[in-house]
Amino acid sequence: MNVKQNLEEINQNIHKSLESAENDTQPCVIAVTKYVTIERAKEAYDAGIRNFGENRLEGFQAKRAALPEDAVMHFIGTLQSRKVKEVIDQIDYLHALDRKSLAKEINKRASHVVNCFVQVNVSGEASKHGIPLNEVNEFIDMLSQYENIRIVGLMTMAPLTEDEALIRDVFKQLREKRNEIHKLNLDYAPCTELSMGMSNDYEIATEEGATYVRIGTKLVGKEE
Ligand SMILES: *Cc1c(COP(=O)(O)O)cnc(C)c1O
């Protein structure tokens, strides 16, 4: 399937999800290009996609260099603190702010305010990155000292399971936490966005109010 057809199908599914949902927030689709070539990423650009996600430094820099200027680049993986210096000024949105040491390094190295999502480990699985749900307030409070960090929203990854109710519950808890932080009216943490949903669960995420879905396999595919 070409990217354009995949995108049409995804947009139709998003549309259907919103018809049955209580919210009418249209999520922005980020094409996760970590499994595919530069050519495939360019095909996504030509299909009209302007938001791209990569989880590794090399892939991120290769796509950033190859895509036109107006591509909005999302870093969605764990960023090593020692790599921050090299890449921070190329990142439009960082989806995985998950520790103080990273925040400190970004603050020191960035030449502008960086849009960040705090990654939250809602499900509490030991294997997952992210701030536990019950420590998010404290973490965001701590970030107020870093003038180059702006918390645009929260991000999570749902557990790998067939249990839709469980996935939905994870997304709902993230939305409620987003609402709670947003209501604090913090200048440095407007916290309006929700980055949640991937190939297998973007429809549930859409129903639960995602503002960004991150789709790899079902949009651009996966090349081994
Ligand atoms: C790989 C990845 C995705 C996309 O995964 P697919 O299942 O291929 O859609 C989304 N978010 C993050 C953080 C990822 O690492």
From TrEMBL:
Residues 6-222 form the Alanine racemase N-terminal domain. Pfam families: Ala_racemase_N. Keywords: Pyridoxal phosphate. SUPFAM superfamilies: PLP-binding barrel. The keyword rRNA processing does not apply. Gene3D superfamilies: Alanine racemase. The modification N6-(pyridoxal phosphate)lysine is found at residue 34. The keyword Methyltransferase does not apply. GO terms for molecular function: pyridoxal phosphate binding. Its cofactor is pyridoxal 5'-phosphate. InterPro entries: Ala_racemase_N, PLP-binding_barrel, PyrdxlP_homeostasis. Belongs to the pyridoxal phosphate-binding protein YggS/PROSC family. Pyridoxal 5'-phosphate (PLP)-binding protein, which is involved in PLP homeostasis. This is Pyridoxal phosphate homeostasis protein.
